[in-house]
Amino acid sequence: MKAYLIFALKRFVQLVAVIFFGCSIAFLIAHLSPISPVDQIIMQVTGRSASSPESITALRATLTELFGLNVPLYQQYFHFLQRLVVLDFGPALIAFPTPAINLVLIALPWTVGLLSVAVTITWLLGNIAGGLAGYFQNSRVLKAFGIIAIGIQPIPYYIVAFLMVIIFGFLWPVLPISGGFAMNVTPSWTPEFIFSVLHYAILPAASLVIVGIGTWFLGMRALVSNIVTEDYVTYAELAGVRQGRIVGSYVIRNALVPQLTSLAMALGGIFSGTVITEQVFTYPGLGSLLVRAVNGGDSSLVLAVSCIAIVAVAGSIFIIDLLHPLIDPRVRTEA
Asked: Residue 335 falls within a domain, yes or no?
């Protein structure tokens, strides 16, 4: 138990380091943008009504202080680190003066829900099908599935998303292609709203599943193809162990450990695919919010979305890392 706690503490230190460096890089990138939030707001104000030069000068000074741009960059960075602890990223430009974190917290559950469902379905189906294909190598159905997986796996997320929009939005319009729920449904914990959310999430989730399932299928099939030649599998078969138990307990279970590591490594790429998919389907998640922030030159909101995404992805990897020693006793927690 003590060894595991030390292992968890080391991984937690790594988690903090990843979040620190990731958010620091996000800060630098956001502040290197040539678009000034102060200029953007002044353009909006002067575009709606005539203003005197004195009032514009006063407004510029107020906004510069509000966004913390009246001090050198290194002081802005230290202020950012202090505010990061309490998730204060300043006001959002596209919904001024609403705090940026408020918009992020509204969009975050949509992305987390979509990503969780898609990753769970993809990982489970891909690994189960890949494990069966690796063990039953003469199955025609699984061979055909492998050929399809090889063909789909290299296709980018957005290509599949666009194809599904064309097919189910125009050629065979049976599913909604934009939004998160029906406009005539009030957001609440009612069966009608939950059904509407699930209905509108079918195409975004399906586009992620279709592309991702091939990766897990091919990886699992390769792992199982090597495991079935191991001595303990051959001995179990000669000893008359039930085939279902060999596949489940001896083969797939051992092959799932490296696949869990692959899941942790792939979470960043899967999140990137989710961002693009949300934009294609106008899904009200972090992806759509990030695109709106970039198009509006909203550096505060871009920084808020980036930092929350870094924390979420790094935290998920941290949880998966902690599960490793519990799933595979061969992992040394002293390392």
From this structure: no
